[in-house]
Amino acid sequence: MNKKVVTIVAIVLLLLISVAGYFLFFQGKKSEKILVIARTNKPSSLDPAHIVWTNDYAIAANVFSTLIGYEPGTRKMVPDLATKWEVSNDGKIYTFYLRKGVKFHRGYGELTAEDVKFTFERILDPKTKARYPDFFKSIDKIEIIDKYTVKFILKYPDPAFLTYLAPWRNSFIVCKKAVLEMGDEKFARQPVGTGPFVVEKWNQETGDVILVKNPDYYGEKPKVDKIIYKVIEDPYTQYLALEKGEVDIVSLDISISGLLDRAKSNPNIKVYEKIGGGSLSLTFNLKDPVLSNLKVRQAIAYAINRTEIAVDLLKNTVTEAKGFISPAYVCYTEDIPQYPYNPEKARQLLVEAGYPNGVEIDFYVPSVGVMPRVATLLQQQMAKAGIKVNIKQMDWATWLEATVKTGKAKLAYMPLGGRPPETVVILTNLFSFDPALNTPTGINFMWYGGLVSLLNQMSKEPDPAKRCKLYKQAQVKIMEDLPLYPLYWGKIYVATRTWVKGFNIDTFNSYGDWMEYIDIEGKK
Asked: Cα separations (Å) of 104 from 24, 140, 471?
């Protein structure tokens, strides 16, 4: 074979190899499984000590792990980072035996009892300014027995202690070394956990967060390679992206006319529906001289037609609230004060309160979902009773600043996702109060301290029947004192592309947990 022929053969072989490599490259890229989840709001923090909203929790739940978990789609407690646990006869000592060989993300080493101890002591340290230290106020001290055994010694029996340790806001175990190296601010943006996914990127401008599969995950290995939490503020635009196949999962804003029927009739979309533990309430800033008057708050309650909101505006996609606690929680009761729609009575109460010419109030409203539309209807309803409402619509971050972070908002919303079913959890979450603080305790931007005594009692009461009575007393007191006025209880509607398999809708967290079980086999 002459040189010319050899050269031609070599060139052809190189071309074939190049072409083959080209197709293998793109086939490899195409085979990467990327799950895209639409979110309405930008996350604010992924540090468990500072997580406030379900939006942040939904991401963090896949980055971190907890000592105990829930069986997917249920509230049955199962081992997670702890393979087992023991409780003393007096209910004051909890001993957890950790899973061995669990690795933190990014080479931060093995999880040990030291990380568990650090996680909860950090939350309880006032310097951390954690959002929900009251969840763990029953802890007296934490002892390390050995590298894989940790003991919690409580001041008193705490009936909700295991609930607080299961997946929920503060309960995610953090890496001590990472927190100390990075500092709180950096750790909130680049968290290090032991969960099935690792934070690859958080775009501070768009709010998009990218998670990648954790190859060292100790549990069931994720079926997708990457999750993109994509911020699309407009809920209708979110749905259009789902129809086009640009996103895989969206939370449906079913107040958009015809959207639910449209989704259900699309053969490429599956709709999941469940009555949840979430709600929307109207909050009153008790530091405000006008709203601090109970009769003014009662007048606002009587001026609101909740049926018009739930039935006429939102087309029965929510349930008119009877009280703050929904039937999803333990010891729900309807035997509480009610304020049926009565604008004339509202006017009379304003006169009795010293406002014969009515009142004028600023209403802080985030530009999210149905809340602006509900606000407009509330404005119209209250105007009939002599209550002038100035709607101040703003983006989510600005709204958070005015409410959760500073507590300056006068009239505002309390949009809640579901909390774990033990009622003390949601009550502690919302109504813990420390008058010495100049920022809201937890998310109590009403500045309401009327439940402190009951919270202390119910958190220490081991008898379920007695605890139930306390829960019912709290529900009555909330509706008597009116730090907030419940508008409706939520229903959860989540739509996915039909190629999404293994999905579970969760009554209390929408779809925050269990992304490791989801597959997208056949995604185009």
From this structure: 33, 27, 39
Q: Kindly tell me if the per-residue pLDDT of 95 is higher than 80.
A: yes
> Residue 194 to residues 154, 225, 360, 400: CA-CA distances in angstroms?
26, 16, 51, 29
pLDDT at 6: 43
| C-alpha radius of gyration, the chain, whole number | 26
Q: Is the dihedral of CA 13, 19, 25, 28 positive or negative?
A: negative
* Residue in the structure block whose two tokens are 């911020």: 231
Q: Which residues contact 220 (CB under 8 A, 6 or more apart)?
A: 196, 516, 517
E-assigned strand segments in 287-424: 319-320, 359-366, 387-394, 411-416
Q: Tell me the residue length of the chain.
A: 524
- Give the residue among 274, 264, 230 at the shortest CA–CA distance from 493: 274
**pLDDT for 10:** 47
Per-residue pLDDT, 67: 97
Tokens representing 181? 């190296």
DSSP for 11-43 reads HHHHHHHHHHHHHHHHHHHHHS-EEEEEESS--
- Residue 254: is its pLDDT beyond 70? yes
- Residues whose CB is less than 8 angstroms from the CB of residue 92 and which lie 6 or more positions away in sequence, other chains included: 153, 154, 155, 156, 157
Distance, in Å, from the CA atom of 477 to the CA atom of 465, rounded to the nearest integer, reads: 19
The answer to whether the beta carbons of residues 230 and 37 sit under 8 Å apart is yes
Dihedral angle of Cα 346, 351, 357, 359, to the nearest 10 degrees: -60
**What would the DSSP string read from start to end of 205-272?**
TT--EEEEE-TT-SSSPPSSSEEEEEE--SHHHHHHHHHTTS-SEEE--TTSTTHHHHHHH-TTEEEE
CA 279 to chain centre: 12
Which tens digit of pLDDT belongs to each residue from 324-345? 888 878 788 999 999 999 999 9
Q: How far apart are CA 484 and CA 126, in angstroms?
A: 27
- As a whole number of angstroms, the distance between CA 236 and CA 395 comes to 17
**Which tokens sit at 22?**
């080209």
pTM for the full predicted model: 0.70
